[in-house]
Each structure stands twice: as structure tokens, then as C-alpha cells.
Specification:
Elements (H helix, E strand, L loop, with lengths): L3 E2 H8 L2 E3 L5 E2 L1 E2 L9 E4 L16 E4 L11 E3 L3 H11 L15 E2 L4 E2 L4 E2 L4 E2 L4 E2 L4 E2 L4 E2 L4 E2 L4 E2 L4 E2 L4 E2 L4 E2 L4 E4 L4 E4 L2 E4 L6 E3 L4 E2 L4 E3 L6 E3 L4 E2 L4 E2 L4 E2 L4 E2 L4 E2 L4 E2 L4 E2 L4 E2 L4 E2 L3 E3 L4 E2 L7 E3 L8 H12 L1 H17 L1
Length: 340
């Protein structure tokens, strides 16, 4: 178990300490469930009602919300950031692997840096390069001439295909597949003819990729994932996509090939984005958005119909099906008004 005094935590967070700095914090919990030895955080007005009854040893809070002068607190402009950093300090997640497991296969032609760990039944093929302190979880596959930067971690059963390049301090969750073939075929009189995908995937530093996400290699050039990008679980990133730095992509999103996404974008869950278009920097797309053309201006974009009761939705759907007829009738009325 990891523990830290409130004073030490305040120093690490750059927070203002109120109360007893000798209190020991060993874990973090939600405001309505936190108890002795735990710290919690207050974000948003709707949680203020829990503050008076909160049993946590301390709370991370904004100055404006600090209404209890006797409560142990860490005062910050952004309590949610404080929560994130505190969770990192108190994190007890085990390593993906430790040492080189005897059941693993590491090619004598692979290059391993200092402190590399390889889990049980993992395979590291010829020409692979693993930087210092790389962790390879059980059952992973790292293909020929693939390269992983220092301190990158792969959880169990990740597949990294040949020639893929991954930067430093990346985290790839279980079941992810990086460098699989893109969906490239020609059609010969109804028969599909496979096009070998000879590009690769190049991933920057500090990238996180969720469980069971697939990132396809390029058909000719490379699929490019910029520094600091975070991709949630079960996403499909097709061949030759380029994603700018610090963009976030929520779960179950599907992207078509040769799409270009800018920097600092946010893509909500279950979005579908057409290939061969561009999305500029600073764009947010809300969940289940369908993007069929390029977005050239930053801002928030939405599509789809919010959930309704079934009877209301059926009426809405019926009206949508009649939109073409309604437009023709409207134009006819407008014409009559102009002529009268």
C-alpha cells in the first residue's frame, strides 16, 4: 500500500494546505463513500450537497467551495487535475511484466535496452528494438524490426506487427493490434484481389491506446499517431490515417482510411468518420456523430437524433422520410408568394 502525508501531497500538487498536514492518505475515493485515510475531490455544484456529510480525511477543492474552515483540504484551481495526479501518486497497478520470463521467446537478433521485462509466452522477433525499461506483458507479439521507445508498456496479448514504430512512455492496453493490414482490395469481375499493405504505423511519445483497438498499417505511406494522443477501447483506426498531437478519441469510434485529424481534437464515443477528409485543429465531435465531409473551422459539432420515447421517435422518423416532399411543397408555396 502506498501512503503519503497531506503536507507532502500538497507540496507535490502545488496546492494550498488547510488543516492537519500530518494526516496520512493511503487511497482516493468518491465523496459519498470516502472514509478515514482517504482523500476525495469536489468537482461541480451537484456534489456540494455531499460535502457536509463527507467522512474523508481530506478533500481537494476550489477556494470558492471551501465552506468548512475546520476541514482538512487541499485547495486548487482545478480539483479534477488534483484528483488525477493524486491517483498517480497512490497507484498500485502492478508492472506489465518483471524480468525476462523463461517461457518467453526473445530472438538473439533483437536489441533490448536496460531493465526490459518480457512476460510469459511473449514473442520478440528478429530485429525488434526495445528501449530502456520497456515492459512487454504476457502473450504479447512484437514483430520483426518493430521498435518500442523507452518506458513504453504493453499489457497482455498486444500484437505489434513488423516495422511498427512506437515512441517513449506509451501505454497499450490488452488485445490492441497495431500494424494489421489496412482494408485494401481491387475488384476483378466480382472477385476481391488483396493489395499488400507495405506502409507501417508510426506512433509518437506519450500515446495511450485502449483495449482491443486496431490501428491499421498504411497501404503505401504510414499511419501516423501524434504525441500525446489518447485512444479509447475498441476503436478502428484505418490505414494512412493521420492524427494530430493531444487529440482524444472515445470508445467504439470508427475511422475510414486516409483521414486527417488535427491537433487537440476530441472525438466522442461511437462516432463514424468518413475517410479521405480533413478535420482541422480544435474540433470536438459529440458522441455518435457521423462526419461525412471535411471540417475546416474549430468548434463543437453534433449529429444524430437524441433518444426519445418510441412513439415520438416513430413520428420523427416518419417526418424525416417525408422531408423531400415537404421541401418541394415549401418551394411551391414560396413561389406562389413571390408571384402574388
Amino acid at each position: 500500500m502506498v501512503s503519503i502525508t497531506l503536507a507532502e501531497l500538497a507540496e507535490r500538487l502545488g496546492a494550498k494546505l488547510q488543516g492537519d498536514g500530518t494526516v496520512v492518505i493511503s487511497s482516493i475515493a468518491s465523496m459519498d463513500k470516502a472514509g478515514k485515510g482517504q482523500i476525495t475531490f469536489l468537482v461541480g455544484r451537484k456534489y456540494r450537497k455531499h460535502l457536509a456529510k463527507c467522512q474523508a480525511s481530506a478533500v481537494i477543492i476550489k477556494e470558492v467551495d471551501l465552506i468548512c474552515p475546520n476541514r482538512n483540504a487541499l485547495v486548487m484551481k482545478d480539483p479534477y487535475l488534483g484528483y488525477a495526479l493524486t491517483a498517480q501518486f497512490l497507484d498500485t497497478t502492478p508492472a506489465c511484466a518483471s524480468d525476462i520470463a523463461p517461457s518467453s521467446y526473445v530472438s538473439t537478433m533483437a536489441t533490448l535496452g536496460v531493465g526490459v521485462s518480457v512476460g510469459h509466452n511473449a514473442v520478440i522477433e528478429d530485429g525488434a528494438i526495445l528501449g530502456d525499461y520497456v515492459q512487454i506483458g504476457a502473450g504479447c507479439f512484437v514483430g520483426k524490426n518493430a521498435s518500442l521507445g523507452s518506458n513504453t508498456r504493453l499489457w497482455a496479448n498486444v500484437s505489434i506487427y513488423h516495422n511498427v514504430v512506437i515512441g517513449e512512455y506509451c501505454l497499450i492496453q490488452s488485445g490492441a493490434v497495431i500494424g494489421s493490414d489496412g482494408f485494401g482490395y481491387a475488384n476483378d469481375k466480382g472477385l476481391w484481389v488483396k493489395i499488400p499493405q507495405v506502409g507501417s504505423v508510426v506512433i509518437g511519445n506519450g500515446v495511450e491506446i485502449g483495449a482491443c483497438t486496431s490501428i491499421d498499417r498504411g497501404a503505401l505511406g504510414d499511419t501516423l499517431i501524434g504525441d500525446g494522443v489518447i485512444i479509447d477501447n475498441q476503436c478502428q483506426i484505418a490505414h494512412n490515417i493521420s492524427i494530430g498531437k493531444n487529440t482524444a478519441i472515445a470508445g467504439a469510434t470508427v475511422m475510414g482510411g486516409s483521414l486527417k485529424i488535427g491537433k487537440h481534437c476530441f472525438i466522442g464515443g461511437a462516432c463514424v468518420i468518413k475517410g479521405h477528409i480533413e478535420i482541422t485543429d480544435g474540433v470536438s465531435i459529440t458522441g455518435m456523430g457521423m462526419v461525412m465531409r471535411s471540417i475546416t473551422e474549430p468548434g463543437m459539432y453534433s449529429s444524430g437524433i437524441p433518444l426519445q420515447k418510441n412513439r415520438e421517435w416513430r413520428k420523427t422518423a416518419a417526418r424525416v422520410m417525408r422531408i423531400e416532399d415537404m421541401q418541394k411543397r415549401l418551394k411551391a408555396v414560396e413561389k406562389q408568394l413571390k408571384e402574388s
